[in-house]
Write a structure and sequence with these properties.
With 212 residues, the chain is an alpha/beta fold. The chain has helices spanning 50-63, 81-88, 99-106, 172-179, 202-209; strands spanning 5-10, 13-20, 25-34, 37-41, 68-71, 91-95, 111-113, 124-127, 134-138, 143-145, 150-152, 158-160, 189-190. A seven-stranded mixed sheet has the order 1-2-3-4-5-6-7, with helices on one face. A four-stranded mixed sheet has the order 8-9-10-13, with helices on one face.
Length: 212
């Protein structure tokens, strides 16, 4: 099993990737240090280097005066939310459309939200064609954090998820249309869960992904 891979994107913005036992592949998670505390998006506690991971995160949470928020993009990405809730009394944020499924996996959703609601750290939730999934926008870092709707294209950019991941009767054209408002944002980075992140030129990568 490969060791956890940690990448500092910018001061206060980190991404780590670790092996997902169920899916048998590495997946990405995001750490954001904010005035509201530590914010983790789709976090997966690694099976390797676990003690070192907890030690580092304990330190960061202590520095944040014990405040932790877990933001989930889609119920498939609930991942280690329950474990983090138990360890840190983390608040679990989830889109209302996915609340029930996420609560089954996390034990509880403390903060169900709708598009436009205020989220910790000034982060914003953006709509997708999958009713139960959102993309997070982190204005302070000009970064998008998608769950499944965007994945790496293997060429340093991004692409739409496979059609089989979409709801019945939802097409790539529908998905692209739902994500097109993101082109109005000053996107620099796309911190993908599946595949390598886009750390520069995110706006161009997004535009190419939506050309359908």
């Amino acid at each position: 099993m490969p060791a956890v891979d940690v990448l500092e994107i910018a001061p206060g913005l980190w991404r780590w990737s670790s092996f997902h036992e169920e899916w048998k592949e590495d997946v990405g998670s995001t750490f954001v240090g904010t005035e509201d505390g530590v914010v983790l998006v789709d976090p997966l506690v690694p099976g390797e280097d676990t003690a070192r991971f907890w030690k580092a995160l304990d330190r960061d949470v202590k520095r944040a005066k014990g405040r932790m928020h877990v933001l989930v993009t889609v119920f498939w990405h609930t991942r280690s939310a329950k474990e983090l809730r138990e360890r840190y009394d983390a608040r679990i944020w989830a889109p209302k459309g996915g609340k029930a499924a996420i609560a089954r996996r996390a034990g509880v959703v403390t903060d169900p939200f709708a598009i436009g609601d205020e989220l910790p750290g000034g982060i914003e939730a953006c709509r997708t064609a999958r009713a139960a999934e959102v993309v997070y926008w982190i204005p302070d870092h000009s970064a998008l954090v998608p769950g499944d709707v965007l994945i790496a294209d293997g060429k340093g950019g991004a692409k739409l998820c496979p059609p089989s991941w979409l709801p019945e009767k939802t097409t790539h054209r529908d998905l692209a249309a739902s994500l097109r408002p993101l082109l109005d944002l000053p996107v620099r980075r796309i911190l993908l869960s599946h595949g390598k992140p886009v750390v520069t030129g995110g706006g161009r990568a997004l535009a190419r992904a939506l050309e359908v």
